[in-house]
Amino acid sequence: xxxxxxxxxxxxxxxxxxxxxxxxxxxxxxxxxxxxxxxxxxxxxxxxxxxxxxxxxxxxxxxxxxxxxxxxxxxxxxxxxxxxxxxxxxxxxxxxxxxxxxxxxxxxxxxxxxxxxxxxxxxxxxxxxxxxxxxxxxxxxxxxxxxxxxxxxxxxxxxxxxxxx
Length: 165
Hints:
Elements lengths: L16 H10 L9 H13 L1 E8 L5 E8 L1 H9 L14 H15 L9 E6 L2 E7 L6 E4 L8 H12 L2
Helix pairs in contact: 1-5
């Protein structure tokens, strides 16, 4: 008796025509790699509690510029969870050196550390502008856009009603 190996095609679930129609109407999901590091910076700073307005890498030099707004949670995180160095203990604004240290730590975590004198932070109220030299990433601008209502959820409802447990 000869055994026939089972192929991957025999383990496929039955095709769902309604789901295929929805996906055809909505299009395929594509995530471009050009703004990969810009999105990583946005995500890391967003985890701290910053509202990231824009992340930009200049086209002709490895200069990055990030504009963000610091929420109360972000400011508390910088002041409470990180020890303040003695030279900055008497500074007028403690958030600026703390944010510089956090940017250097994030850059090191993303692959390449930055030098201490290559990071600049300016503050205007709750808004910060961070510029630094960092060789990774492609030139481009990632700007936060307002969220629009998605029609996809209305298209998925019939499929969910049909396949709900």
